[in-house]
Design goal:
Layout: H1 3-20, H2 25-36, H3 41-45, H4 47-59, H5 75-89, H6 97-105, H7 115-124
């Protein structure tokens, strides 16, 4: 699996960890990325996908995760919530992460940093409440 998809895999794994452990979403994310990126500290520490995951958890829309205060990131939260709105309007966007990202950021010159991988992986695996 490419690194591009590994952050989505980490999000799914983190949700599964949370289903059976009374820990915070942040700790679950750290467990998941450590397992998936076992020998790559920079991949484990990447903030954008982590904050995208935490932002989704924060809203209470991720299955079995209560709403709460999990991240201070405002930009990544706005990206994934806009992405979620777009997915709810057109679920086929889940098949084109780059198109989804371009729709989220509009005419801004921002590089995709795996936020949509997190969102789309949770979406496609039925882990987001519709």
């Amino acid at each position: 699996m490419s690194d591009m998809n590994k952050y989505g895999e980490a999000a799914i794994k983190a949700v599964k960890v949370l289903e059976s452990n009374k820990i915070s979403p942040l700790v679950a994310w750290e467990i998941a990325v450590t397992e998936i990126f076992s020998n790559n500290a920079s991949s484990c520490a990447k903030a954008c996908p982590r904050n995208a995951f935490l932002a989704l958890c924060e809203t209470g829309i991720v299955n079995n995760i209560p709403p709460g205060l999990y991240t201070k990131s405002k930009m990544n939260k706005s990206y994934v919530l806009e992405g979620l709105t777009l997915l709810r309007e057109d679920s086929q966007l889940a098949d084109d992460i780059n198109k989804l990202w371009k729709m989220v950021i509009g005419n801004q010159k921002k590089v995709h940093n795996h936020q949509m991988n997190v969102l789309v992986s949770l979406w496609k695996n039925g882990l987001i409440k519709y």
